[in-house]
């Protein structure tokens, strides 16, 4: 109790008895006891309110986390569906593409130099 041992408590009681007298000491002790009980009730009420607030915050955090997980699950499912749609459409696009011909594409200009005559980077032309 506040780091006060039995000898210190006895000294305090003797001093209180001398200062206050035997008639007022019981009244003051009673008032002190009531004040201490009221203080304990008040601290208990405050602790209870804090615990209620903490539980409410934790419940809100759990709800937000569940909503986040649900959104992530939906996004993953949507991404998988889009990937599947693209994967399914790719073979059809390849099949419907025109077959390559041996002729050069329209508007193609033939190269003026052969690959052997083009110098490599860092080399001078000969």
Characterization of this structure:
The structure is a single chain. By secondary structure, this protein is an all-alpha fold. The chain has a domain at 30-88. It has one helix spanning 6-96. The protein is rod-shaped. It starts with 5 loop residues before the first helix and ends in a 30-residue tail after the last helix.
Short key terms for the protein model shown above:
single chain; mainly alpha
Topology:
Layout: H1 6-96
According to DSSP, the number of beta strands is: 0
Structural class call reads: mainly alpha
Mean pLDDT score = 84
Radius of gyration: 45 Å
Distance between the termini: 101 Å
Number of helices: 1
Q: SSE order in H/E notation?
A: H
Low-confidence stretches: none
Largest sheet: none
Provide the β-strand percentage band: under 5%
Which percent range fits the helix content? Answer: over 70%
The backbone outline, from C-alpha atoms, is: rod-shaped
Tell me briefly what this model is.
With 126 residues, the chain is an all-alpha fold. Helices cover 72% and strands 0% of the residues. It has 1 helix and no strands.
